[in-house]
Sequence to fold (1029 residues):
Amino acid sequence: MSQKLTFVGILKRLCEDPRALVELYLNYDCDRNVDNIFQTIVEDLSRFATATIPVTPAQELQYQEHHPKAIAAGEWQIKTVLPPPLSVALIATHHDADGEIPKEYIMKRVALDALVDTLRSLLHWSQPGRPEANGAIVNSDRRASSDDARYSIDPSLSEAASRMETPLAPSTPVIDDDPDQLEKEKARKTALANAIKAFNFKPKHGIKQLIKEGFIPSDKPEDIARFLLHEERLDKAQIGEYLGEGDQKNVEIMHAFVDMMDFSKKRFVDALREFLQAFRLPGEAQKIDRFMLKFANRYITNNPNAFANADTPYVLAYSVIMLNTDLHSPQVQKRMTKEDFIKNNRGINDNADLPDEYLISIYEDIQNNEIVLKSERQAAAAAGTLPQTTGLAAGLGQALSNVGRDLQREAYVQQSEEISMRSEQLFRDLYRSQRKSAAKGIVKFIPATSFKHVGSMFDVTWMSFFSTLSSLTQDTHNLEINKLCFEGMKLGTKIACLFDLSTPREAFISALKNTANLNNPREMQAKNVEALKVILDLAQTEGNYLKESWKDVLLCISQLDRLQLISGGVDESVVPDVSKARFMPPPQRTETTDRRKSTSSVRKGRPRSHTGPQGVSLEIALESRSDEVIKSVDRIFTNTANLSREAIIHFARALTEVSWDEIKVSGSNDSPRTYSLQKIVEISYYNMSRVRFEWSHIWDVLGEHFNRVGCHANTAIVFFALDSLRQLSMRFLEIEELAGFKFQKDFLKPFEHVMSNSTNVAVKDMILRCLIQMIQARGENIRSGWRTIFGVFTVAAREPYESIVNLAYENVLQVYRSRFGVVISQGAFTDLIVCLTEFSKNMRFQKKSLQAMETLKSIIPTMLKTPECPLSQKAPGTSSQGETNLKSPSQQSRTSVEEGFWFPVLFAFHDVLMTGEDLEVRSNALNYFFETLLRYGGDWPSEFWDILWRQQLYPIFMVLRSGPEMTNAMNHEELSVWLSTTMIQALRNMITLFTHYFDALEYMLDRFLELLALCILQENDTKIGRAHV
Fold:
């Protein structure tokens, strides 16, 4: 055990050397001809570290006193000096002073230290790939550290002579550290290992996979047989089953397989041993017979003078196999004698006897050396299995032998033996491979120069690290061990983040979150707080790489706030567990609120004995409120301003998800949790100064969350969200927006969304007052935001609540009177017209509708005098064919000035007269419509008149042609009123218009006459009479 402990100490020293680990990986784990040394070392250390060793607290304390806490890194790493030589003389052993501490426990602790040292070394080697303070990445893959001063572990540089059986050819270090190429080689090695596993499970599938991957050149029997013969990792039993199949293809492969063996000048038993080492004989007699026939054929072909014919080796082979079983099987009571063996083989050489001396030599050979597969013997040794006795006596003897034994300790010893056997076999394979490579003259050593290898090294071993560290943190309460495991998990997370390995990153972060145990405040211990501190530290250092793991981090921070509330005296039932949000349906607010308690009303509670408020440990309560924890949380949010463009999006999305979870679990309370919602406001302030392109993507996430929260049933949540939006908007509107952009428009969209979807009058009123305050305080800075503001007022114009309609109209009127020029210059003219149109169509409040109609009418002379309007620059009596860049929401191409300004106003009148429900309002709209045409139409080009005819004039009379469609929109009485009032008035005005502009509209005479004919054919006498006139 002392030797094993010393060897594990050597492994620990190796694990402290970053270059040695990387070069091990490059030269062995990336070589398909040998097993994975680096991976095997990590797996074996993991098994040592997780072994269950009974130990008392006193022994643990004694160990910690004799083995002080390890430094975070080796002294040579910290001081960037040369590491000490790795020699046996310098490997100190202090285990004799450990006294009663079980050596197995010492080995367990040393193995754990070695695993953490491995992670520390990998992270140390990857430092060139980490961003500098300014966020730049080191361009060179070259390892720029003190490690360059250290000698490589290239075996050719060693002064000592090799002690292997066959000396290796001299190897020259080759700068061949190509990460991409080595990664491909590693991938090929992994693919081969997977294909071999597939063969060992199902040979036919494995062969197909090996051919598909190119490890077997073709499906020719010779190629398949060659691979089966020379690949030592294949399961011999599966080879036997595959070759023994009776299909023609399998028989051909089996024949090619045996034909590749050379039995020339070999003794019969030696040839049979070689033959039976290549596979395991299957159990079926027919399959065995096919193998024996082919063996006999091959032996007699290579040794034509050995026997009379092929029948002799065929029968003798069977006889030798039976002898081997008889002499070595524990089930056989009476063994075969030499005389029996000679007797059994009388006359087998073409009716002649083989010499007795020859048969006796075979007998003695088998007696002294059993024919058994080497692979099975090695597997049995590695598994620690011994020949088993059977029967009642054996069972009784086993039971008696267990008395007074430490079975757990023996199990650990057996596990150690297994690892030792595996390591021995690994190095045997390694030496064998090196000898082969030396014989071919292709020996080369790859020195480590690139940090990129760490990614693939960690990718193949992270499960071993994770299973060890996570299981130990769960199973032990030793704080020193816990801290060491947390340190390892932090190192592993940093490596996973750097190389964008999402699965290990999420696994480590999730394990730390679960270990923090923040959802059970009463049960929290010191180790839980340590796990929380690691999470907070990672959030500060790895923010740009956490991606989806931000959700776990921010969930912990939310739970930390809950812990602080509970430890401060708040009833735990008032602050629900956020982690339960996924099990809850969307919160439904009811009218019964008697049992609800706000967090402000239950700040005081009766503390239990020896605990803080609400049963939380005093130590935990103080630790959760420590300056270290509070400052760490603050730094996480303030540092979001330094996150990358991609990282801040991940952060924002995770924060909105946690915020919604908080609202889901507490939304039915009078004082719901809005901790994360407050943090959303904070990070918005911190990140508002980002370039507009980045900020717009952030707001896509945050704005959608405000849309969702603003429509919640709990008005306390909604009011908080709206007030937060107001504050953010006031800050955002301080930033100047250049012409042509729409950042303000997008930023204010949540107000419009909530206004449209909320049914609460108080919420609608608050939205309007927020906008009014913004207009009053930041009106000079509003640009594209006017369009969204008018959108909100437009929604308000349709409301059935008079207070909402009046408040909105008053402020629309105020904006129109004081900022009309800005509205036009920002492309919001059409939005203003649409807003006033909706006020005009609200039949519930006729007085307001008539006022809005008058305002629409007054816009015409106002826009003609406003400098920002292109119409104000046109000389009277001239027609404009020019174009402007002004765009309306319904038009995506450049439009004429008339279409940009006259058309929206005329369409507003047309919309009211066609869809308005109040007769007086409708009549006014009709009059204003034709008055505008008569007064201003003389300067309009014919193209614009064509547009008006198709889209506004002719549709007024479409009811005469499409009666059924109109009937669907109105009942019979409404239609009759509309025809006898609005239609007649429209027809008169139409005739007046055509008469007034006859010269200009003469080309439209055919269309006008068609319209009159349509009226004459109607049954209504009033229309017919008017048409005749």
